[in-house]
Amino acid sequence: MTDPADKPVADLLRGFVQRGSQDDFRALVTRFTPLVYHTAVRRTGSASLAADVVQEVFIDLAKRAPALRADERLGAWLHQRALYASADMLRGEMRRRTREQTAAAMHTPNPATPATA
């Protein structure tokens, strides 16, 4: 039997879509994780956010693989998804920080108001 890591990308994707081959999907993940991770690190500036992006992108691939065209360049598709997912992750982080700052400001005593004894 052929090692999935040696198969062409189109065969791996076809194997995952048509037969549900976990070995083929694992080979795709192994092959393309560096591309997705480094794209995400460059975009987010954070290794931990990049790791979250990698998970999100490959979950997205698992869901959308049947809809990908046969001539789709998977590396380009994954790169684009990593850019989108990174942007979404950064927006989420900005919203979280804003909420945390607002909550912290609500619990900080106002120095202009005298303390009651």
Report on this model:
This protein has four helices and no strands. With 117 residues, the chain is mainly α. It has helices at residues 9-19, 22-44, 47-64, 74-106.
Residue share in helices? over 70%
> What is the average per-residue confidence, as pLDDT, rounded to a whole number?
89
Tally of helical segments: 4
- Can you count the beta strands? 0
Question: Uncertain spans, ≥5 residues at pLDDT below 50?
Answer: none
- Strand residues, percent: under 5%
Radius of gyration: 21 Å
- Overall shape: it is elongated
| Distance between the ends | 81 Å
Order of helices and strands: HHHH
* Major pleated sheet: none
Q: Helices and strands: which structural class?
A: mainly alpha
Question: Concise description?
Answer:
This protein is mainly alpha-helical and 117 residues long. It has helices at residues 9-19, 22-44, 47-64, 74-106.
What secondary-structure arrangement, pairings included, does this model have?
Elements: H1 9-19, H2 22-44, H3 47-64, H4 74-106
Helix pairs in contact: 1-2, 2-3, 2-4, 3-4
Features:
single chain; 117 residues; mainly alpha
